[in-house]
Amino acid sequence: xxxxxxxxxxxxxxxxxxxxxxxxxxxxxxxxxxxxxxxxxxxxxxxxxxxxxxxxxxxxxxxxxxxxxxxxxxxxxxxxxxxxxxxxxxxxxxxxxxxxxxxxxxxxxxxxxxxxxxxxxxxxxxxxxxxxxxxxxxxxxxxxxxxxxxxxxxxxxxxxxxxxxxxxxxxxxxxxxxxxxxxxxxxxxxxxxxxxxxxxxxxxxxxxxxxxxxxxxxxxxxxxxxxxxxxxxxxxxxxxxxxxxxxxxxxxxxxxxxxxxxxxxxxxxxxxxxxxxxxxxxxxxxxxxxxxxxxxxxxxxxxxxxxxxxxxxxxxxxxxxxxxxxxxxxxxxxxxxxxxxxxxxxxxxxxxxxxxxxxxxxxxxxxxxxxxxxxxxxxxxxxxxxxxxxxxxxxxxxxxxxxxxxxxxxxxxx
Amino acid sequence: xxxxxxxxxxxxxxxxxxxxxxxxxxxxxxxxxxxxxxxxxxxxxxxxxxxxxxxxxxxxxxxxxxxxxxxxxxxxxxxxxxxxxxxxxxxxxxxxxxxxxxxxxxxxxxxxxxxxxxxxxxxxxxxxxxxxxxxxxxxxxxxxxxxxxxxxxxxxxxxxxxxxxxxxxxxxxxxxxxxxxxxxxxxxxxxxxxxxxxxxxxxxxxxxxxxxxxxxxxxxxxxxxxxxxxxxxxxxxxxxxxxxxxxxxxxxxxxxxxxxxxxxxxxxxxxxxxxxxxxxxxxxxxxxxxxxxxxxxxxxxxxxxxxxxxxxxxxxxxxxxxxxxxxxxxxxxxxxxxxxxxxxxxxxxxxxxxxxxxxxxxxxxxxxxxxxxxxxxxxxxxxxxxxxxxxxxxxxxxxxxxxxxxxxxxxxxx
DNA sequence: CTCTATTTTTTCGAGCCTCGAAAAAATACT
DNA sequence: AGTATTTTTTCGAGGCTCGAAAAAATAGAG
Lengths: 414, 414
Hints:
The structure is a homodimer.
Chain A: H1 7-25, H2 30-37, H3 41-53, E1 57-60, E2 76-79, E3 85-92, E4 95-102, E5 107-114, H4 122-137, E6 147-154, E7 157-158, E8 165-168, E9 171-176, H5 178-186, E10 190-194, H6 195-206, E11 215-220, E12 224-230, E13 233-234, H7 266-269, H8 271-278, H9 293-305, H10 309-332, E14 337-340, H11 347-359, E15 372-375, H12 378-399
Parallel strand pairs in A: 3-6, 6-10, 11-14, 14-15
Antiparallel strand pairs in A: 1-2, 3-4, 4-5, 7-8, 8-9, 11-12, 12-13
The structure holds a DNA duplex.
Pfam family, one (chains A, B): ROK
Protein name (chains A, B): Sugar kinase
Keywords (chains A, B): Kinase, Transferase
């Protein structure tokens, strides 16, 4: 802790700054980079010259858009797609998908596969994962031998070191150190990420204006998950991967949750809970294992048609989400929310009760100004988040082969 | 954002590192500082020589504890008490207290005063504050003309810039920009802090082993407040000063809270709520304005004596706190908790129900291992926290007169 | 009392890094 | 073709940290 700054760290960090500026801006000129980083032109010139020499950046000759200004035209710097590549693995319920992404962020190969995650034994599940990765790595059509990083995302709880899955709803298995397994198998550094966290990462890259420093991504799926960005950084718990929004308590002693406890938000707002309420099975009914997306859409359609138990089920979901968000907002103050997943497609049914509930909470003071976006399909987001996360790791590994310190914040609270 | 590191920032930061190492360690030798900061001996020698020359540090000639080792003895570096001083102001219900603290952290003057905050008009409240500060500043017994910073703490919500009180239970007044007022009056930089945050800051200095990177300070007083430290940094909300733990929703539509809403944790666990339940006044009864500490202690005594409504009231408080903590732990994972304030003295009555409740939540998985400390007196903690906060500001202002950047973290989520 | 071993602290030159100013490069306008 | 303008590179200056060596300060041994 509290480590000083060495002289050589300086260059490393400023290199990082330049790379990240290029990744963010697309094709910034040296002048633009100097402006955003606050470093001098000479420094940017020196660093980018190094980076180009090392094949990390390249000058984009694309002299399109004939310069309107006079003077020497700016020459854009771009990430060299061939500098490296990363591999993403997304493991979700009964579905496994991998993609290879080049250093500039383009997908250059992918493969998807259905499998029965709920019943699969440990060896087989791990085997499927390593096999699909191996097929991509050994694909003769692709000569990307330089996969620099693997990011694997899974629904459920991962440890705070991003090494292992601790628990997941997609399998009864627990404690699988996927990151270590993949690293051991392929000798490529790997991380194990939480799916909702990756959604949040992706949203930030997709819409940096809307999702900048503070926002919330909530997965409305069979379970309820959350990815939380606070002060520009992904918020993860102290031990595990992060905010188990779905297991905040909505009603003490209330409806039976998939986790075995009672009254969690998820026990009212998860697909199985909506299903259970819509079918009027009672709050003590054992959660069903899975409800297909199609079934959920049918349910939503019926709820829109008539004021029956289906509509009431969505109302209850909205209420639980609203009070949950209200409590969350009491802690972190209101922030933009993105609702993701199949039930986000039914957000019209959820929103009224949600807003009504949130207005009754401390966090709901500005209830009207809280905005919700919806995105029914979580998979592309998760994969995109994984890709960006892996690429950012590469950005840092390439420029900073040494120890990366937590930005010498050092200063203690006070 | 994403600002690069300049060459001269380097020295500034390493100076900061040295100062903070000295503040933390007490009287470390140059060698010890070199070890903890990771900088070379030469660098530490140069920096500390500068700091001594500027009167910020001083060599502690205190050759006490005759060195047992041979070789040149280490010479301890200490903060020079006369380098600066800070002033703390703590404004709580019907009570105003100020203290002057030297650069080494010793209280060198103080003054306290009772006043009727609940009915006082705006001008008068502000006037009392400025007057008491002025008396300390003009005290002829004290020749500390170099007050470098004022930190003012208040119960309630402050803005995220630490400039103004937005709302407080101790007065019906709102939006008082205390920091600006004091700065304008005395020309000394000032900040407006939340009391519970200061408690957390103080706990971290008092018991760094127990309260290090992640912990929670909860104020059990008339209202329920929280100071939260995550990953070594004080957690504050995006807009306001921070976690309104007391206004997380315990029971939707439940007991009437002082804030006007229903079902907040505070509506079950605040002094007025315990009082209301103990007197069996019903959950809709308007919260009383204040319950004296003595009354609360009497209540607790009665609850210990017999199993009546008083005991039940504490049980309900424990339950609300337990479920609230459970939801909080779902978000941030379990962490050590310090219970502060008069009702922390009745924690024996609260704890059983609290633990029972927390065990029913997702965060309570390791319910047994969560530890609670109690500290019945919040005032000294708040003042201490203010002092440390102000001193830390001075540490930074003295060494880094320029722009202080948020430790060039720059790197975006991903 | 002197000498030696040991530990801390300072000194000094080397190597980097960033910066500002000036030069070079590349284009639009006249 | 020449000038104005903007971007990028070059170059020397000034700072900072580091490692090695020197200096300082003490305990223990004889």
